[in-house]
Structures are given as structure tokens and as C-alpha cells.
Amino acid sequence: MEVHSYFLNTRKKHPLHLTLLDPGKMDSENLSKIAKEADQAGTDGIMVGGSTDLSFENVEKSVQAIKNVTDLPVILFPSDSGVLSGKADAIFFMTLLNSSSLQYIVGEQIASATHIKKLGLETLSMAYLLLEPGMRAGLVGKARLLPRDNPNLVISHALAGQYLGMNYIYLEAGSGAESPVPSEMVKQVRESIDNTLIVGGGIQTPESARLLVESGADIIVTGTFVETSNSLVEDLKPIIDAIHSA
Ligand code: 1GP
């Protein structure tokens, strides 16, 4: 499956929802159960990744288990170069543009490039921007967190990502953030860039998901919500419906 084309074609019909599954937090059996239910609820794809406790083994096993229960595209969302699986359909080949460390801007990318070519993974180029509070990803990625009240600085980073040729710009509040990226920030970034805008971190309700897509997000990511829900299809469907119908 060509994931980039799939995203662009699906976006022509409606904004997308992606389900983030973290093999550092759950075993492959539980992750595949969530993937199956998220598929039933209407999600458009599965991202696999996290900030800590990932290993080649648990990523590979999790991707395989997810592929066994769904035909949705599975996209790696890696924390570093050591946790890649050729069983996935694609990888977000991402640079943390507001990291203070070369390792996360270009080091991990150089370390993984040859391996990605050998695995034959489709690469989806992405500028990853961490806004306050950033959570675990902010600490691990040594981010100089972008302030929530400084749209001009966020726009500069997003535009730099676009001019560097990234197809995707990801505004990230951090997994488990108390509140998502402000909708006004999303609106201003949307008005400044032309490429696909992903928003994630702290999105827990249909209302906040709808507001973010109405403000210009093309893709909404939820992780914590799907990990913590007891009846996932029932709970997730209203969020996905809000995104698809916005
Ligand atoms: C993290 O944006 C994602 O990279 C998802 O965040 O876990 O808060 O949904 P949540």
C-alpha cells in the first residue's frame, strides 16, 4: 500500500484519524485488540511508536500482531533508529526541528537511513514540532518547547519544515498533555503552510477533535484515549465521526 497516496486520497474525502499504539506500554496481544476495535470504530490508520521502553523485538512483534487483525496501513512513529520493523507499511521519517540536540534533528535519521532502504519502507517526511508541555517526548527529544502563546515562532518552524521539503507538519503537545494544541495556533499555522497538518497530544473528546479539524488539521492522532477506554468502539466512534464529518 502506498501510504502517502492513501492519505492524500482519503483527505480529499474527509480529515483523517490515526490511532497511536505504543509497544513500550502494552504487549502485542493488547495492542492488536485495540487496533481491531479502532478499525471497527473507523480509524484511518495505525501509528506504532512511543518515547521509551521500545525494542526491536516488541516493535516487530506488535506490528505483526496488528497486521494480523487489520488491513489498515501501519506507520512507524519511531523514537530512535534502533526500533524499525520491515513489516510496517511506512515510516514517519521525522526531524524534531525544535530539539536542542543534533541527534534528534538529523543524527537518528542518518543512523537509520541505510537500514530503512534495506527494509524497503516507504518514508513519509515530517517536521515534528513539540509545543508546551511536551511531556515525555519533550524530555527524551531534548526539545526547546514551543510556547503555546507564540504562534509566530511555531509558524517559522512549520514553514521551515515545508521549505525543507517535508510533506507533513506535526504539531505535538505531547502524549497525555492536559490540553491539546490551541485551536487558534492550528488555525494560524494552517493559514501559513500548504502541506499536510497533523495535530496530536491531549485530544480526548469529539468536541476538541472537531474544533482542531475545523481550525485546519488534516490528521488527528489519539493515543492515551485508546489505551484507557474500556469499550473502545463505542467511545472512539464519536471522536472519529466528529473528525470525518467536520
Ligand atoms: C503523541 O500525539 C500523540 O505523540 C498522542 O497523544 O496520547 O495524548 O493522545 P495522546
Automatic annotation (TrEMBL):
Statement: the UniProt record of this protein carries the keyword Lipid metabolism: yes
Gene3D superfamilies referenced in this protein's UniProt entry, alphabetically: FMN-linked oxidoreductases (3.20.20.390)
SUPFAM superfamilies: FMN-linked oxidoreductases
Organism domain of life: Archaea
UniProt cofactor(s): Mg(2+)
The EC number(s) this enzyme carries: 2.5.1.41
Family: Belongs to the GGGP/HepGP synthase family. Group II subfamily.
Name of protein: Geranylgeranylglyceryl phosphate synthase
Source organism (scientific name): Marine Group III euryarchaeote CG-Bathy1
